[in-house]
Amino acid sequence: MRGVLAATLEVLAEVGYEALRIEDVAARAGVNKTTVYRRWPTKQELVRAAFRSITVDRAITPNTGSLRGDLLVIARHMAAQASSPELQGLRRLLFAEDRDAELVAIAQSIHESMEALPRPVIEAAEARGELAPGIDATLIFRCMAATIHHRLGMERRPIDEGFLTQLVELLLTGGLAQDKRT
Amino acid sequence: MRGVLAATLEVLAEVGYEALRIEDVAARAGVNKTTVYRRWPTKQELVRAAFRSITVDRAITPNTGSLRGDLLVIARHMAAQASSPELQGLRRLLFAEDRDAELVAIAQSIHESMEALPRPVIEAAEARGELAPGIDATLIFRCMAATIHHRLGMERRPIDEGFLTQLVELLLTGGLAQDKRT
Hints:
Radius of gyration of chain A: 19 Å
Largest interface: A-B, 51 and 51 residues
Low-confidence stretches of chain A: none
Structural class of chain A: mainly alpha
Number of helices of chain A: 10
Strand content of chain A: under 5%
Oligomer: homodimer
Helix content of chain A: 55-70%
Largest sheet of chain A: none
Number of strands of chain A: 0
């Protein structure tokens, strides 16, 4: 069924969410429309599955033995993913139709799934005693994702290994001098 | 001339960058088109000025006496600004026409100006010895802006004081436990 989801992303990029019709997706994928309806009964479910296929389903869960190592692997993966044409198309769509309630609900549900992804990495870091007390560790990952997406999507600047290392270091150790911490 | 820039943002929101004509902006603002051309000879200059009027020109430079205090004031201001309809419209436009080279160049130049803004805050923090050695302090501000914009624009979640405090704390002191820092 990868063909149907890829076709969904193509049609979305061309006509947007509101105008997307399951018939057109089926035609593009070369399958019968009942085949699509059987698996994804509504447009919303179809589009959510298509979004998941290029976000949640592509996520990785590294296990390098340290939080720093895991963050760097995830940061590199995020940067590579975020510059893919599919992700650029997704960003474009979400902003172009940012007042469509159904599309907003899909985006929110994808973000909730994304947020659960680093849990094994966070648990491993906790088990190693690596996390500062009282920290919301998911914020580290959200901050990292936001900064990478913002740099590519808004600032329009390339991302290199030096940038990713600096970013991970800031999130791990902070910008404040040691003797100014209370 | 505020009226002309406000009219520019309105017309942009309606027709986008490519289709915007200075004549239409002048008509909307109720001024002669030569009045507009005299001050902003090209569409690119007019649109850049309109973007600046709701970004760079609205920025604040706090001086609370501590980096933590300054960051919190800026974070609150960013969050309030980022949820304004004008900024939402700007985000929508930048993503909708993200392959227009002229518009991308405008966005990049605005981001460069934005990046210079925290310089007084950074210099004050340096003078107080508050910055960790080797840190690129502008990254703290870029990370903060990205996370706030991402939360509002992509995750579609509200921002409260608790979130801003957590974010500032993470950027200042990092997520790694003290005894794991080498």
